[in-house]
Request: fold
Amino acid sequence: MTKFFALFITFTLSVFATDALVCKVINEDEILKIKCIYKTARKSYDRNISMAWTSPSTPQDDRFKTVLLPAQHGSAYDFRYFDGRADGSWTISATDDSTGQVTSIEFIKEDLGEATTISAPCKNSTLEKPSTPK
Reply:
């Protein structure tokens, strides 16, 4: 009975979950990476999630990537190596192509020196994609 109740609560929370984009600086094998995870409600169909990284000062460092989110999955991620990224305020956004929902955050890159693992200061905001005239 407890398993049924836990499964019911998990399902209920996942149905009413809001989209979120969470970024962290992580240390894997002495290499610092910025890892962003887009979390969303699970759907019964495959979807494309478009992830865009916008540099504060160097447009050649921008990146746009489309990730397939299979049916019944609730998250997709992308990462960039920390070294070589421009200093300043990065904008990272994830767009659910099936719903038009855009979730974006601002990531402020600071000089970490000898840091091993930290959480990045992120500002999360959710924006509706502007509707296109028909």
Remarks:
- The mean pLDDT is 75.
- The longest helix spans residues 2-15.
